[in-house]
UniProtKB/TrEMBL annotation:
CDD domains documented for this protein: ABC_Mj1267_LivG_branched
UniProt name for this protein: ABC transporter ATP-binding protein
Species annotation: Pigmentiphaga soli
Matching InterPro entries: AAA+_ATPase, ABC_AA/LPS_Transport, ABC_transporter-like_ATP-bd, BCA_ABC_TP_C, P-loop_NTPase
Annotated TM spans: none
Keyword Signal annotated: no
Amino acid sequence: MSGPMLLEVNEASKAYGGLLAVGGVCFAMREHEMVGLMGANGAGKTTLFNMVSGATKPTSGSILLRGERIDGRRPDEICRRGVGRTYQIVRPFGGMSVEENVIVGFRYGSRVDPLATPLHEAVEQLLHEVGLIDQRHRLANQLTLAARKRLEVARALATRPVLLMLDEVMAGLTPTESAAALAMLQALHQRRGIAMLIVEHNLRAMMQLCERVIALDHGRKIGEGTPSAIIENEAVIRAYLGAETA
């Protein structure tokens, strides 16, 4: 793999008593790369996300961001080092406006001085990019699910991450809303060049977004490669699609 390493996950494992949720997973990401993480429910995707973001401490192994170990650090420390993430179940501050939700990210989660750029300009630009500028003054609890998902992305981006981790941004959306979300993520990547690690059950969207896909099954990596290669991987077909190979 050429280019500077952004994220390195080395033999990362997480056990809960006798249950091994993630076992010895290894992978790396370059700066600006878009990588997908796929697997059936219970494959270990969310646990792996939580280990990278600091919500869960690995039982063993190491996780490095730009060469610095981040495993075991608090989530706020990892966020300020440049890891932003969304959650499958979105929980914005419902009594605050869309704009105020984004300001919280800039003020309290940013890895850079939040005063380095005029806040009004930074918030306005970000809301334009996620398609929420016309709803900036609406309360978050008045938004549709699709809009709340966009707000979740905006709040994560407000922390100025070098790695954006997206946990099922398209879950629960209609086909039209999913297509719009896909276009938004593609535009964000093109404009900002930010690296993205993506968990998504919408396989068509993942194949369009990602340069490389990592497949998990029962907490272990069973495949890694380009989208076209991974969908032809026999182990992935058996585990993820539940199909028999020839």
